[in-house]
Structures are given as structure tokens and as C-alpha cells.
């Protein structure tokens, strides 16, 4: 009887220690995860902002080229070299932006996948707890 009580006390102490470690470890991990989540959100927002600006620049360039083409065909207007140089600058800037975005995307992709994986692991642990805990409570009640 005494050895059983000692075992129960050791088991209770072990559970308390484990709970404390998990709570403190999860809070540190959670804050790291939250920080990573915020960093990724900022990176994603910047990426989307750059992409929207790029698409806007390209749309404006396409409209300018189409207007210029229509003027040349319909009105027999000569092409101004200054306009062509400005369009070339916009195209060069857009090409550089595309190259930068192509470099940023894989890192953003990997970061988001890692974050999703961590969050899915947490959801799975919580679902498992919710599924198994009623049975554990019933078993304890029967004892």
C-alpha cells in the first residue's frame, strides 16, 4: 500500500513537472512562432504590394504602347524617342522587380509551409486531446 502511494506521488510529481515544462516551453515556442508568423505576414504583404505595383506598371505600359500604336497607325503620328525611352525604363524597372520577386517567393513559400505545418501539428494535438480525454475521464471515473 505504501509503495503504491509512493508510486502515485512520483507519477503525480512527474505529471506536474512535465506540465510545467510543456507550458513554459510552449509559451516560449509560441512567442517564437508568433514572431515568425508576424515576420512572414509582413513579408507576404510586401510581396503582394510589390506585385500589385508591378501589375499596375505593366498595365499602364500596355495602355501607353497601345495608344502610341493607334496614333501611329490611325493618325500617322511619328514616335517620340523620349516616350520610347520612358517605356523602356518602365520595362527595365519591371524586369528587375520580377527578378526580385522570383528570388523572394521560394523563401516566402517555404516559410509559409513551415508555419502551416507547425499550426497543423498543434491542431492535431488538440483534436487528439479532445477525442481521447472523454474516454480517459470515463476510465478514471470507473476506477
TrEMBL record:
Residues 37-71 form a coiled coil. GO terms for cellular component: cytoplasm. It comes from the Eukaryota. InterPro entries: SRCIN1 (IPR051825). Keywords: Coiled coil. This is Uncharacterized protein.
Amino acid at each position: 500500500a505504501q509503495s503504491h502511494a509512493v508510486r502515485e506521488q512520483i507519477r503525480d510529481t512527474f505529471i506536474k513537472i512535465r506540465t510545467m515544462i510543456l507550458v513554459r516551453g510552449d509559451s516560449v515556442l509560441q512567442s517564437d512562432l508568433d514572431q515568425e508568423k508576424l515576420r512572414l505576414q509582413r513579408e507576404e504583404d510586401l510581396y503582394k504590394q510589390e506585385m500589385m505595383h508591378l501589375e499596375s506598371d505593366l498595365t499602364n505600359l500596355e495602355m501607353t504602347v497601345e495608344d502610341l500604336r493607334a496614333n501611329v497607325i490611325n493618325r500617322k503620328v511619328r514616335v517620340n524617342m523620349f516616350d520610347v525611352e520612358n517605356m523602356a525604363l518602365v520595362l527595365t524597372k519591371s524586369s528587375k522587380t520580377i527578378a526580385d520577386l522570383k528570388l523572394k517567393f521560394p523563401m516566402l513559400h517555404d516559410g509559409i509551409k513551415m508555419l502551416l505545418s507547425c499550426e497543423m501539428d498543434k491542431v492535431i494535438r488538440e483534436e487528439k486531446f479532445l477525442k481521447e480525454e472523454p474516454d480517459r475521464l470515463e476510465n478514471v471515473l470507473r476506477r
